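Hey, sorry to bother you again with one of my protein questions. There's a protein on my desk that I can't quite get my head around. No rush at all, and the record is pasted right below.
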Amino acid sequence: MAHPETTRTKEEEYLHDWNLIGESEITRPTTVEIDDETLRDGLQSPSVRQPNLGEKLDILHRMVGLGIHAVDIGYAGAGPTVLDHIVALAEEIDNEDLPIEPNCAGRTHATDILPISEAQQRSGVAIEACLFLGSSPIRQFVEGWDADFLVSTTEKAVTLARDEGLEVMFVTEDTTRARPEVLRRVYTTAIESGAHRICLADTVGHATPWGVRALVDFAREIVADSGEDVKIDYHGHRDRNLSVINSLAALSAGATRVHGCGIGIGERVGNTPMETLLVNLKLLGWLDTDLSGLPAYCEAISKATDTPVPANSPVIGKDAFETSTGVHAAAVVKAMRTGDTWLANRIYSGVPADELGREQEITVGPMSGKANVVAWLTKRGHECDEETVDKILATAKTSDHVLEEAEILGLLSTAHT
């Protein structure tokens, strides 16, 4: 008797995914929300240009297109210009009925809390106050603070914000180096004073994934003991380049919202890069969102802040889906010839280019073979006779760089002379 054929997906047919073996040991989050910090923490980078209001509005709309849930629209206590921008951004969210929730960061000082309240009153839009206070022993020593001071400051700040009609996310700075007994006291006080979220901040990029898991587990205990419906955020920096995996670890451990900045801008070496975070969440199946607008979102941030995107940046860099190597190019070309975009975007890439509205690009350089030249010429509608191909390849082999388009076109004009 003939056995019925088993229907396989392309992933099952053409890929053996070792990631699936360990995936069962990882808790899949039930809630995944993203808070975009580009327009606040991102702008604290020492190298960025401060965007004008029009540029901020453009970036805001691009966030919405990516399904980002919340946005920090600025540091209200920074001055009148920033405050006016915050009001305008909040009004834009309301007027255009954008499905994104605004928040503003501020210290646990009335001078930062009251401007957030003013922005909420002027715009008529609910704005979450993200109030932060240093919590680690090293910060306490430098500032001359003790645990009692942290607790009293927390109570006064959250109470003032709630009296002003603000929802509060309470943030402990340098959480990943803070003592548990201090965190328990401070977070419990914040919750009892009316905070509806607490945020664990890896302010100096110190954390490892296992440290993050332990910290989130501990924070969940605090929330459970409070008996209140309080959500947990995680805010990462990338000083050790662990921010993305730390964010995934936080979500798996029970955090419901993680933070990031477009192209990873922010203090020192920056925040969790939003583009890499979103791609990983999509590939894990933890977040289903259309990422075709991701390159344009990153380009808008790059232009608005005068921050160049390195060519080798994952996902959005010029080189992310480009190859000039002969063996790689030959395999990509063979996949393209099948007419199957799925194959072409995975034969030499762990990130599908088409998910981002991009495509594989084959270039010609010192490490290229004939397949590179033929692919380059064919894509642009040029003849691929042997003499032309040989001439371009010979030039590439003696070059110290990948040939620019103008260089190849110049060779075409003299190929048969």
